[in-house]
Amino acid sequence: MISDYNRLSGLQKVAILFSVLGESLALNLVKGLDKTEVRKIRAAMRGVGNVAFAVKKQVMEEFYFSFVSEKFQEEAESDEPKKPFSFLNELTDEQLIALLITETPRVIAITIAQLSSEKRMMILNRISEEEKGQVLLNIGNLNDVPLEAVVQIANKLQKKSRQLPKTVAFSRGGGKDLADLLGEMDAEDEEMFMSNLEQDNPDLAEEVKKYRITFESIFEIFPDNLLRDLMNAVDLDAVAMALKGMEQSIADKVIGVLPKKKQAMFEPVEGAVPKRDVDTARKSIVSAAKQMERDGAFKLEDLLGGETVE
User: Fold this and answer.
1) Which architecture does CATH list for 215-304?
2) pLDDT by residue (tens digit) across 55-79?
3) What residue segments make up the domains of the chain, in order of their start?
4) Which of 46, 172, 207, 297 meets the CB 3.0–4.6 Å disulfide criterion with 292?
5) Measured between alpha carbons, how far is 36 from 271 in angstroms, rounded to an integer?
């Protein structure tokens, strides 16, 4: 039995495709074959013998992706001066996962049809078996998708990709890594991404929340001793700027944990200030909190679980 997909030659893969689909249907898909090539394929079909189901499935996936990708590329080259999905080449593997994880199976199918075989399988291996099946079903029904719809999807994803963190490399994914990446975004983009995630993938959103420190959550989960250490680790002017617009009860709580000398020096920020200055100050406090966690001062899971840190 043939059970190793990676050891198959190109001719063997075509032979397996023909044996699965039947020669008539396969010839409609694989166009341009002359009589000699067809004879070679027929001979190879007799040679491949018994093939494992998993190998047949991989062969079908590869050819489906190739057919769909070729169709879209031909239409894009004739009707569009630029390839609409070219921005995907600038994303890392984990950015691709973050980009597609909340999308519908149809959008995932159209998108991964534009990628290399290696990246296609990487994405398929990172989604659930149920969703993978839906994506593969959609792959078989993409021929009727008009180019205009494909370009629309590409434009939407490109806009969404600009919200992803500008990072060189990701880790292996998951709630913790996504939470860390969200922390690198601008505050508005972070909130927008989380809002979309809560609607599209509530389970993943809940997982992210287990590892996500936000400026607002600091005052909900940090006991006084940790809050004191955190505020002492940040410049007093940044603390004052970060508290701009917060409820007075929170400001009073922060001032109350500061040393007496700093309490006397504290001056609230008066008047209108640029929002980016407030966001920058708050981000510096969140960064300091994350550094404390890395240094072992606390475990976020403990704080979210209701335990206190002495």
Assistant:
1) Orthogonal Bundle (1.10)
2) 887 777 766 666 555 555 554 454 4
3) 1-51, 63-162, 175-209, 215-304
4) 297
5) 83
